[in-house]
Amino acid sequence: MDNDLTHLTLDESFNVIYHHPAIRESYPGLLRRGFFKDLLHGCSPEDFRRPVRLNTDLSGSAPISLIFVRSEEGINCIVAKNKIHGPSNAQRNLQYQMREPISGIFALLPVIADNINKSDSNKAVANLQAIYGQSYKLLRSVSNISMASNIFSGAVLRKETCDFSELVSELCESVKLVVRNINIECTAEKNLYIYANYQMICCAFLNLISNSVNYKNDRDVHIKVTLTKKDSMAVLTYSDNSKGIKDDYLPFVFRPYFSKDPYNDGESDPSLGMGLFIAKAAFEQAGGNILLTSKFGQGVKYTISLPLDNAGGQILESSKADFLLNKYSDLFIQLCDCRQLPGL
Length: 344
Description:
Blueprint: E1 7-10, E2 16-19, H1 21-26, H2 35-39, E3 52-56, E4 64-70, E5 75-81, H3 90-117, H4 121-153, E6 160-163, H5 164-178, E7 182-188, E8 193-196, H6 198-214, E9 221-230, E10 233-240, H7 262-265, H8 275-285, E11 289-294, E12 300-307, H9 320-324, H10 330-334
Parallel strand pairs: 7-9
Antiparallel strand pairs: 1-2, 1-5, 3-4, 4-5, 6-8, 9-10, 10-12, 11-12
Helix pairs in contact: 3-4, 4-8, 6-8
């Protein structure tokens, strides 16, 4: 089925005013009365002045993507087959990522009580800090699961014009202040603006850094970031000196819930497996893409291309204060395994 022909057109109220004949045969659920009104509840036609991709499941058919874009005829909706890989590792990863910090918290609570009863304040403070760290791990898991849920459900996320140059620069400077033994070289051309969901782009970039730190070699982490303009695109290159990724894993790293099996190679405990999945979705929802290359033992390199936004209007800016003064900012949540905790 040709995806260029498999499309519908909606009016301003999200009613179907035209559909390709193949829609009724393959995706009749799309023609149910009120389907698009329910799906796009809270949206306006202006939200689709740029292409927006939504993932959805239809009863009796495979998962699909719906790509919306406004045109003179109305709102065009192109139907694309969407292979969403089943969460084969989800149960194992979720169980570990949720149970491990909860178990740590409950194990430390009676120890703290005993320390207090014995007036051993130093041990009590140390144990409180440990609980603090475990709580951040839970917060990160909940945050990433919530973000992934929005991606799976095809939720339409708020987009804004962001100063991408400033966001990248300020995040790099902030990371250097809270993560030990890390060297980030950042060169960013100024005044490069993108139209994106700010939080998702922020989390996407921090997930790249988190991977660099958590999979480091036996030396300090070195990251090089370059942001330049190329034609109508903002091009971000990111490289590190981490362990890199084995060839066997490369085809799967962007899949949800994919994590190296520690019981297979003994390298590390399983992560939730959502970091690169969220990063890829964030950049794609901003109309861009991410390319990953790696050679095991020699680090990784990401090349991210995002369309520039020159529409003008209000621009969302960033500063180190946004990340450092808020103890629940994405900086502290996404890097909770590898950075200094903010004060209690």
